[in-house]
């Protein structure tokens, strides 16, 4: 149907990125607890695209397998009720209920990785063909334009609330248009695509899709209460105030003074239970912060007490950390209202929606907005006793006073932690605070925002899964490259890919801290990065290779400055200065890195193999992201510097070989 190579590259690249974002949202919505591993889906997409490019010169057309692979991946997730069982130490996720078939992560996650990898390999093979038909920078420019369009379309779909039928409808329509042929396998592909859409439509019956997750309400058997499910996991019960557990009353009933709080801040207000309790206890003004607009709307419509319709309540759809950075108000009660998610904030890194909410710096930000005689409260089902100790230690270090901690002693460690000068007003008959005999676990910080890790380490389940996936990558690349990996993978492009993926990750972390871990921030960051790629391509067309050493030196200097100036120092600057400084130090390395790649790719003789090397390098960079669990994100900058240094070494060595060969040919 489409004859022009530029048009095909544009449409295929847009389709690849759109599908990547769709699967990152869709698969965790149907495979319970896969949301904690969504970065493996991103990693699989990179590996699949790299393999597809390596297979570009084979005679077998993999595109005919794409509809069936997508049907197996997305359709299979829709049909089978599957849950991932947790690690025994509970350091990756804290799990209390399952559905259907329960499979260990080190078996299920690699299986999903293989399916996603095969799906993207089948789709990207034709893109590899197309890259060989155009000059390198021309092909790259249309690839980036397509990727920008894919991000924009998926962002628009999230904004207007379109669900998976629309996502996969666009995917299969674009694919069929690209591969249309009057005869052959096109009809079989159309049948597979149609079956996929039917399955997706049935699986999405009676559900809502927020920009983060799949949501649906169910009536609890034997009651009139509703239970909100997020990605098939019971998330929050909507119940009248009088039926709420005692922890909701603790900030009001454990104190001698009965005067109602003037202004309460509820962080992670969800469907409104905590807000309803505050209103019932006479709080005069409540600010409710919830990151997911659809959860807020469900609470507004279905909570039995209708707390969000009360004139005393102001709602804010925002990341709570971002809200704390911009609000000018003070509160005499701040409640962290069970704010835990079942998914990562994006496909990059291991940042959950609430990761930057439970750090020392976040507690310090909350303290700045706490009234002199105020109270800050955290409560949740903490699953592991050491997690309570960790939070208590962080609160004590931040506030300089011992927190008040009570634990109901239930199976899942339902605990309440309180801090602030209001504790001087505790009643004499309040339960005794828990005392901890050992030193608390390592505190979570903005550099190491991993509340659910007891100490900096790589959990054994991650080690097993990463080892299996690393082996799969090696065997797959060896198979498609005829067991000559070193001859097919160009090291300069490979290390540029490793470094750039890590650079993207650190950029996302920095902007998440600055603007919040919202879906819109993630989309805008990726859009900005791709826009910089386009600008870099334009500049690279006007520069010569003699500029490369200076560009590498400039990139190294900026990365070194980024490492030497810790992010907390930048966040402490005045608002305008802070935004400019963080944006400059974050985006300049991205810009320099893109000019370096574009200028290197400009003289490429084997576009498909070199681009494959770059994409597979990005896949390896996705594995190296996990080093942040041990080192924190700041030290990833040193890894990035090392990768660019290695890339420069190989680029210079290749240049010397090319120059020598040219001289020999001239002499002959």
In CATH's first tier, which class of the largest domain applies? Answer: Mainly Alpha
Number of helices: 23
Lateral arrangement of strands in the main beta sheet: 10-9-8-11-12-14-13
CATH third-level topology of the largest domain: Growth Hormone, Chain: A
What helical percentage do the residues reach? Answer: 55-70%
Structural class: alpha/beta
Instruction: Report how far the terminal alpha carbons are from each other.
Output: 49 Å
Mean pLDDT: 88
CATH architecture of the largest domain: Up-down Bundle
Major β-sheet profile: 7 strands, mixed
Low-pLDDT ranges: none
Whole-number count of domains: 2
Please give the number of β-strands: 14
| Fraction of residues in β-strands | 5-15%
Name the overall outline.
Answer: globular
Rg (CA only): 26 Å
Task: Describe the model.
- The strands form three sheets. A seven-stranded mixed sheet has the order 10-9-8-11-12-14-13, with helices on both faces.
- The protein has helices spanning 5-30, 38-54, 66-79, 105-131, 136-160, 164-179, 186-203, 250-253, 273-280, 293-302, 320-326, 360-368, 385-399, 460-480, 485-488, 491-515, 519-540, 548-564, 567-571, 575-601, 607-624, 628-631, 636-667, and strands at 31-32, 82-85, 101-104, 208-209, 214-219, 226-230, 233-238, 263-267, 285-290, 313-317, 331-337, 370-381, 404-407, 414-419.
- It is an alpha/beta fold and 668 residues long.
- The mean pLDDT is 88.
- It folds into two domains: 5-208 and 453-655, Up-down Bundle (Growth Hormone, Chain: A); 214-340 and 360-425, Vaccinia Virus protein VP39 (Rossmann fold), CATH 3.40.50.
């Amino acid at each position: 149907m489409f004859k022009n190579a530029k048009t095909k590259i544009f449409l295929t690249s847009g389709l690849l990125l759109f599908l990547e974002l769709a699967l990152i949202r869709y698969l965790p919505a149907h495979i319970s607890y896969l949301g904690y591993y969504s970065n493996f889906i991103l990693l699989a997409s990179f590996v699949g695209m790299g393999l597809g490019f390596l297979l570009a010169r084979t005679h077998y057309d993999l595109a005919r397998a794409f509809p069936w692979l997508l049907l197996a991946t997305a359709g299979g997730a829709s049909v089978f009720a599957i849950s991932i069982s947790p690690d025994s130490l509970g350091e990756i996720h804290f799990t209390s209920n399952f559905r259907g078939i329960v499979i260990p992560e080190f078996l299920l996650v690699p299986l999903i990785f293989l399916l996603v990898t095969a799906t993207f390999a089948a789709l990207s093979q034709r893109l590899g063909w197309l890259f060989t038909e155009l000059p390198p920078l021309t092909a790259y420019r249309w690839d980036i334009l397509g990727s920008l369009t894919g991000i924009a379309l998926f962002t628009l779909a999230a904004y207007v609330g379109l669900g998976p039928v629309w996502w996969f409808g666009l995917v299969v329509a674009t694919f069929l248009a690209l591969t249309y042929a009057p005869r052959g396998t096109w009809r079989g592909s159309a049948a597979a695509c149609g079956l996929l859409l039917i399955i997706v439509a049935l699986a999405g019956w009676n559900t809502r899709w927020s920009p983060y997750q799949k949501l649906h309400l169910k009536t609890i058997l034997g009651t009139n209460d509703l239970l909100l499910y997020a990605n098939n996991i019971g998330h929050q019960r909507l119940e009248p105030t009088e039926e709420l557990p005692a922890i909701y009353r603790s900030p009001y009933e454990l104190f001698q003074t009965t005067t109602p709080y003037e202004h309460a801040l509820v962080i992670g207000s969800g469907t409104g239970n905590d807000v309803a309790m505050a209103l019932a206890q006479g709080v005069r003004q409540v600010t409710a912060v919830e990151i997911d607009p659809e959860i807020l709307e469900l609470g507004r419509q279905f909570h039995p007490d209708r707390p969000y319709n009360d004139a005393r309540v102001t709602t804010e759809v925002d990341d709570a950390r971002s809200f704390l950075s911009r609000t000018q108000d003070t509160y005499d009660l701040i409640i962290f209202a069970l704010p835990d998610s079942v998914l990562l904030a994006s496909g990059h890194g291991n940042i959950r929606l609430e990761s930057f909410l439970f750090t020392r710096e976040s507690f310090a930000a909350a303290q700045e907005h706490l009234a002199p005689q105020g109270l800050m409260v955290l409560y949740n089902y903490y699953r592991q006793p050491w997690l309570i100790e960790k939070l208590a230690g962080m609160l004590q270090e931040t506030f300089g006073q011992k927190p008040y901690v009570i634990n109901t002693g239930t199976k899942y460690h339902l605990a309440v932690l309180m801090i602030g000068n209001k504790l001087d007003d505790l009643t004499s008959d309040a339960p005794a605070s828990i005392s901890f005999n050992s030193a608390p676990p390592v505190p979570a910080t903005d550099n190491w925002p991993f509340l659910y890790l007891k100490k900096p380490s790589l959990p054994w389940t991650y080690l097993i899964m990463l080892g299996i996936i690393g082996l799969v990558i090696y065997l797959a690349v060896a198979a498609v490259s005829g067991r000559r990996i070193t001859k097919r993978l160009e090291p300069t492009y490979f290390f540029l890919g490793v470094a750039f993926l890590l650079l993207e990750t650190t950029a996302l972390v920095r902007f998440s801290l600055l603007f919040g871990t919202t879906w819109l921030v993630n989309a805008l960051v990726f859009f900005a990065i791709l826009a910089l790629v386009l600008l870099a391509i334009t500049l690279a067309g006007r520069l010569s290779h003699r500029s490369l050493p200076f560009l590498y030196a400039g990139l190294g200097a900026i990365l070194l400055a980024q490492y030497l100036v810790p992010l907390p120092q930048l966040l402490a600057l005045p608002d305008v200065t802070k935004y400019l400084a963080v944006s400059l130090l974050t985006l300049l390395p991205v810009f320099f890195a893109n000019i370096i790649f574009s200028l290197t790719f400009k003289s490429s003789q084997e576009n498909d193999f070199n681009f494959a090397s770059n994409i597979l390098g990005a896949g390896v960079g996705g594995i190296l992201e996990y080093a942040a669990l041990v080192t924190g994100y700041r030290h990833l900058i040193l890894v990035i510097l090392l990768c660019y240094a290695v890339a420069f070494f190989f680029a210079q060595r290749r240049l010397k070989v090319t120059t020598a060969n040219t001289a020999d040919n001239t002499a002959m």
